[in-house]
Fold these 2 entries.
Entry 1:
Amino acid sequence: MSDIVTVENMCLWYGEHQALKNITIKIPQKSITAFIGPSGCGKSTFLKSLNRMNDLIQGVKITGDVKYNGKNIYDPSVDVNELRREIGMVFQKPNPFPMSIYDNIAYGPRTHGIRNKAKLDEIVEQSLKDAAIWEEVKDRLKKNALGLSGGQQQRICIARALAVKPKVLLMDEPTSALDPISTSKIEELTVKLKEEYTIIIVTHNMQQAVRISDQTAFFLLGELVEYGNTETLFSTPKDQRTEDYITGRFG
Amino acid sequence: MKNKKIFENVVHGVFLILGLITVGCVLLITVYLFAAGIPAIREIGLFPFLFGKTWESTSADPSYGILPFILTSIYGTAGAMILGVPIGFLTAVYLSKLAPKRVKAAVGAAVSLLAGIPSVVYGLVGMLVLVPGIRKLFHLADGASLLAAIIVLAVMVLPSIIKVSITALDAVPEEYEYASLALGATPIETYFKVSVPAAKSGIAAAVVLGIGRAIGEAMAVMMVSGNVANMPGLFESVRFLTTAVASEMSYSSGLQRQALFSIALVLFLFIMLINGVLNLLLKGKKEA
């Protein structure tokens, strides 16, 4: 399996505060990689630097290499909009646009120039099917997406992200605002999606990481403490800090 | 304990009375306008009054047709909106979404100042700068015209449009914008395809508020519009509903005076209509 995202000696500062220290990690494609760690450990910050969403925060400085398909994404020649099309994102809080379900899904393709109605219909249907929500919404595509339940909204957001045909899907605690049933639906969906997509998921829920991920990375205080096969990391952690965290001694 | 309760009731009563003062004023004005405005309409006839093309209140054989005023008010307001809405709306988008903090603060302060300038000052500047400018530019005998009034009104409605639109745009949750950017949309695409639609009812309210401001303005337009009861044309001297009332009231008598009240009533109905629309828009916003 080849690595789709490779990061070397990456550091990130918010003004004077160093939030990430010398992160080096290789993420294989078409697998699920989980980032775990206590609040404020930098896992979300790291995730957002993979599609350059951190650019939106003032005073962020990044050094080191962050490569996607072998190309440094912070290189001035990189088209950040194109990058974000290839590396999609699902947020912690479901955030569908205040428009119809159809328009939510069609937003991305339209932005990237697809105008043909039949083509859009096809993309919308396929994306909703891929996000396992087609059956629930197919009769009300023209209804406002904000009328759906939280779990449904989150799957709409996943469908919206899939509609631009990304290669990588970044998920920032996508189930933390959801009930257990919706959570398990999203988890099942995520496992299914890894056949087609590379998924990187930040989670505060260690059981979730165990259930769905292939690799796990443990972050603490801005450092990547340990990274490896999920089963190995949880059964025989190499680092004492990892062991303390996964056995619940802190966090 | 008992004293406390009496005190509570008294305070309650005071607040109630204060609240009723406002409502009372509105009611009083409404009742008075209807009472004062209807007799002249009865005497002149509703149709000749509203659709008569000539207003000659002081001639030996007076005629009281206010269509020129109604159309002037409508054209003037529409013209001010055509100029003012795009400028105000785009300024609001810029200030809310794109401008650096310092620019936003500086321009915001300027907009507030613009809102605070008395209308007579707008009129004065319009009279001294705009009217001669229009006269020279278009080679007219007199620059005081509907066009001058439209330009002055357009500037005057900017603060309401900008401020209310900014409030609406600032209230759009950042999550929407992040979601759009994360899909690969550019910031400008994001603002116009996500933020603006999300704020549309607030922006519509801003426009309606601007319309209300424009149609109700008297002093500034009186000073630059020439104040002659012509049917409106861009370069004609014209008279608005507001200025029709203001310019003749001091020397009016009899039916002429009553007709002025009737004009005020028509203006009042326009304002009520606009307020009704505004309330609908704001209500729609809450439900959405």
Note: Chain A touches chain B through 25 residues (CB under 8 Å).
Entry 2:
Amino acid sequence: MTAVIRTTGLGRRFAGRQVLTGVELAVQQGEIFGLLGPDGAGKTTLMQLWAAILDPSEGQATVLGFDTVRQAAEVNARVGYMSQGFTLYDRLSVLENLQFAARIRGVAAQDFAGRSHELLAMAGLQAYLDRPAGKLSGGMRKKLSLCANLIHAPPLLLLDEPSLGVDPVSRRELWQLLRRYQQHGSTVVVSTPYMDEAEYCDRLAFLDQGRVLAVDTPAQLRARVQGRIYEVRTAMTAAVQAILRDAPEVLNLQWLADRLRIQLHAGADLPPATLARLRGLATLTPAEPGLEETFIALSTAAAAAPPPVSPAVMETQGGEVRAERLCVRFGDFTAVDRVSVSVPPGEVIGWLGPNGAGKTTLIRVFCGLLMPSDGEAFVAGLSVNRQARALRSRIGYMSQRFSLYPDLTVAENLRFFAGAYGLGGKRRRQTIEWASGMTALTGMEARRVSELSAAVRQRLALACSILHGPAVLFLDEPTSGVDPLNRQRFWQLIQTLASGGMTVFVTTHYLEEASYCHRLGLMHQGRLVALGTLEQLRQALRLPADAGMEAVFLGHIEHAQRELAS
Amino acid sequence: MNPRRIAAVATKEAKDVLRDPITVGVALIMPLIMLLLFGYAITLDVDDITLGVLDEDHTPASRQLTEAFTASGVFQLERELTDPHAVERALQRGEIRLALIIPPGFERALTRHEPSPLQLLVDGTYSATATLVSSHALAIASGFGHAAGPPALQLETRVWYNPSLSSVHTVVPGLYAVILMAFPPLLTALALVREKETGTIAQIYASPLSSVEFLAGKLIPYAIIAFVQMAMVIAVGFLWFGVPFRGSVAFLLAISLLYVLCTLGIGLLVSAVTRTQLVALLAVLIVTLMPSILFSGMLFPIFTMPYVVQLYTLAFPGRYFVDISRGVVLKGVGLEVLWPSIAIVAVYTLLVFALAAWRLKKKVA
């Protein structure tokens, strides 16, 4: 085995901020190597250093035997690098984009003919040769970008979050392309924030806050926390949680839709006293660990874990969300197509679907921001058609961008949003106190939002959206860009709010997060193709009980497509 | 330098821009609009100047003098004034730009060959036209005086290169320099920064393209567009504004190709150091359009500026091209006279490209 990439003491600072520190890695020839970590972990920076389009502040890297600083041109000429986001020229057709990629890399005409034919066939793009790249779907764009980076048959391919903005169907096709390419003896490096995607890699590096936590195969990584994971099934969630939260042996507690899941500290075991208190209340069974649990174990071992969040339940008058044959059309494009759903108070419903499936449009209708073209929708008993204004004071909305004022302090943001909801005087003080206590912001009131971490900003955004005690809370991709531990803690807050009676409507890109939701709605091309608990969705397809969310999702979409075709 | 890679970038860029009808339309129409607007708006000619007359003499001679003013074609008799207060009011309201006051006893003094007092009041709020107005008026008045007696000196004045002293003939060749400085750099600056904004530049960085190859490829399609802009502007100047063309057309086109490369290069340089289209746009306007209007000599003659400002104008290629363009168009001169300016533009162009290639480092940070 020869190392294709080798780095020693690699580090990079941006304006005095250390983004990457002491990276020691070797990527072997012929493997698919994954870089797994939350946003801001340093994945993109590391990729750019390897692609020789960024110089390190410390240390060095050799790629395919060339130094990335002194021999950058050699590296550029041999590596395929697909950056995040846009890599295509929108006004150029599929074929022209590919031709451009080939010609700037000096691919001979006869090589181009053969390779482009093969790549386009593999990517299923032969039928769209003359279509401008700007008019392709997100998935097709990614596949074309990948083809453009494979046209010179590079021995090493660096892909920065290739599945960003790609629906599960296209993601699977993308991975099939990568596998086939790897079989020719080439090496692939993929970065991803998704645990389920990381499972496909031969070896993985966990990246957190600019440091490499571990490098190993996915199975070996999971084995590191073997025996520390238990599943707790109970009917008395609140009581059991109280016991487990106080146990010093518990590193982390995950509140899923139908059960709890705990991770113990390394070498710790629940003492007999705790087990005795749980007896009769709950059943404890050892469980198979996931990559996320290893990540949490390793990241909390490297740096002290932030204090756990212990939110106080507050009773809210929850409201029902109901849609009846709801349609939203923009011109002749149907964004939401005859969606009927009813969500009872206190339920957490997860809304999943590829980009452009109509999730955000649907939320905008429920929030009274967009008039439906057809059908009816009611939120907390109010009609979105006729009572949109009254409706807005009964709902909370948190967007993926966390609409906060970065130059105001935490307290100022809270006061502003409370004022915007018409709260004043004593009432305002009380709700701010409650919301900031609930989201563990106490003590941070004087900090400016711009200096907070993504996880704290996320909790502040949540606090701002629940100040007025809404009946229904809409969360649009609330966990993007947050590390696994804080994501799990955020979900605890959501579960707490729901157990107090609030209805919670969540959209998410992380398929793993489906297990936090009581029910799931799957959207595809504007239609609601499946609705039910995760278990029901599995059974509908006769999938085994341990089938992952991705398989469930793909199964239902394929089913819907077959139905549409027939 | 690999010509195949440059050709790849140029082809891609050409297709990209030709499929954007708005950019092409703006690139072709805006220079014409600017030429027409400025060509008509910037005029230093004076005609139909409103004149008020306060005739306190009421004699045939005073009426003849008034006629001499109106017959010149420069002045237009707006009103007859009756008293000094009316004169002031008319000037204040801007009804008249010039007041001619003929005192009592004007004719008598004239017939006796005595110096006869005559008052001209000029509205000086527009200083440039005021000077012209008063010199025209002076010429008419002294001509009227000469008719009464033999002159001491006979001055034969001939204006060369622009005999009709038409300001269009001065402004339009200057506008060639300003227009070719205003629009071509916008094209290149935005084209490169757009790639930075969308992120496609990362693919370029990570490819074997060198920055020189990339810049050269980017330049070619825009050089063609800019060349078309230039040919259009010169044609409209000649055919529409009737600006004479005394020198060689081929020579002017050749030199303006060099000048256009220079301005396109400034656009590339701006885009090499900026990150967003908005900043690039503002930077281009500040470094090209503004100084080319103020300091190129298109409008305000450089030789009348304070010495320090004159030194400052040396930094802008526009001023050299104004000299070249006026030299070729109005004076009919060629390389033998203009070579120093041409050499400076050439050196400037090379410098701008070297700087742009050096600044565009093929690194994301």
Note: Chain B touches chain A at residues 2, 4-5, 7-9, 11-12, 15-16, 19-20, 198-200, 202-210, 362-365 (CB under 8 Å).
